Amino acid sequence: MELEGYKELDRVLRLLQTSFPTSVRKRALPKLAKTNQRQSLRRFRHKREPDGTPWKSWSDRYAETRRSVIHSLNINEG
Known about the structure:
Blueprint: H1 5-19, H2 22-46, H3 60-65
Helix pairs in contact: 1-2
């Protein structure tokens, strides 16, 4: 299963909530969570939006602050 962004995830969750019994939801929700996690990690690795669009590059000014140490947008200071 591939989820194309948060709108798709929201649509699937609403469908589950309104159309399926609790027993089905209990089995489906962990699978949806795992799919969402896998896809999110892949997007961070490949630096892409949920729709596949590449992330914008850092501005020159921001990139200048990151030169002393190897940084990623995912690394926080402090």
